[in-house]
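Practice problem. Given the sequence and the SMILES for flavin-adenine dinucleotide, write out the predicted structure.
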Amino acid sequence: MSQPLRIAVIGGGWAGIAAAVTSCQQGAQVTLIEMAGQLGGRARSLATGEAAPFAQLDNGQHILIGAYSQSLALMQSLGVDLAQAFLRTPLRLRYPRHEGLQLPAGAPLISFARGVLAYSNWPLLARLRLLAAAGGWLLRGFHCPPAWTVQTLCAGLPPCVKQDLIEPLCVAALNTPASHASAQTFLRVLHDALFSGPGSADLLLPRLSLSELLATPAQRWLQAHGVKLHLGQRVQQLSRSDKVWLVDGQAFDQLILACSPVEAARLCAEIQSSWAAQAAQLRYEPIITVYLHSPGSRLPAPMVALQEGPNAPAQFVFDLGQLSLQDERSGAFAFVISGAAAWVDKGLGATGEQVLAQALREFDWHSPPQVQRVLAEKRATFACTPGQQRPPREIAAGLQAAGDYVQGPYPATLEGAVRAGMAAARHALKKVG
Ligand SMILES: Cc1cc2nc3c(=O)[nH]c(=O)nc-3n(C[C@H](O)[C@H](O)[C@H](O)COP(=O)(O)OP(=O)(O)OC[C@H]3O[C@@H](n4cnc5c(N)ncnc54)[C@H](O)[C@@H]3O)c2cc1C
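Answer key:
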């Protein structure tokens, strides 16, 4: 009888989890090595040691859309009840004092057209120009010159459409301002939201913590299926010997590098220097999350879009009390600043104060809000710019990369990470099978 393939997955974020689960489902003998003390990577929860509602905080608020089919399928295969895990609604952009664009339920393309036509805050001409532009994107197969930014793509649209729709969607999906963001990647997200079947443009807001969404059920599943899990272990060195790969001296048939591109570049520097150089040159965009506390307060919707500006850092705020299944999160609010490089430069204390001032201007609070925590992830995502060269999945025979940054159509998202992890696992098994 042939021995099962020995696969090591290095890194236990969403890409590494997807790679480990897929490899295990296909009969491989899997070892997963994660540097941190827990799985989840950038999409993890942190125990704070503080009292409710801040006893546990997500590393940053995450949202999914209905088109994220592989992430949803992965969660489901690990036993997560999706109906309970997410508040799922058709796309709705609610602002503090008025409703923004809202799509009715139904087939995404038709509901997009109906939602735009019905949105009377924009002059009729502006609505028609957006529909005409969207029709043009459709006719061109959602392709555009690779050098275009989202700003170039949308140059002909009226300012109200850019400000109320394009800019917030772009920064939320690509974590890169429209002036720098890749139009081709933006069009791909729009395409998948409008053409991946019913509900693909829906917003899915997590009701559970990020760890409950994936890391905790994945850890249970992997252990129950015999995967060797090493937490708190940073891989130091990879090498090739005879027909096997050595991970800090331990032999494997195939490796999947699901760690950050910086770490992947370090580990591969002597194995495949051109790949390592490509991974090392990636540029990043930060995200800052400011958690405010205001007992007894409630926002007009679980997710509210905000108008950003020189004194208004945040683009979205989430009412965690409305989202959570437990009352104990009531009074907790997460303000999100995507594409936050300028605010990182100003300092986290100053940014927290500006968000507090923005919150006081935008909403009526039941009790005076206070800044509870400011979390900054400096390398939240790669900068999704037109010129960005992303490294390919295959590094060398038997050595692959998986992560939200490897070549692919998506921006840095949970879905991009999961798809990359699954693809690497399938490829590893196909090569040998
Ligand atoms: C604040 C914030 C908000 C976000 N919002 C959204 C959102 O709304 N929607 C969305 O889809 N995406 C969002 N993202 C992006 C999303 O979190 C990432 O795309 C996804 O988590 C990337 O997963 P990954 O597995 O590719 O990488 P990572 O999560 O970075 O995983 C890499 C793992 O490798 C481990 N590792 C590194 N080096 C080693 C080593 N030498 N040995 C062992 N282990 C190692 C790390 O500890 C880490 O756990 C957001 C990200 C942030 C930070």
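Check your answer against the key. DSSP finds 15 helices and 21 strands in the chain.
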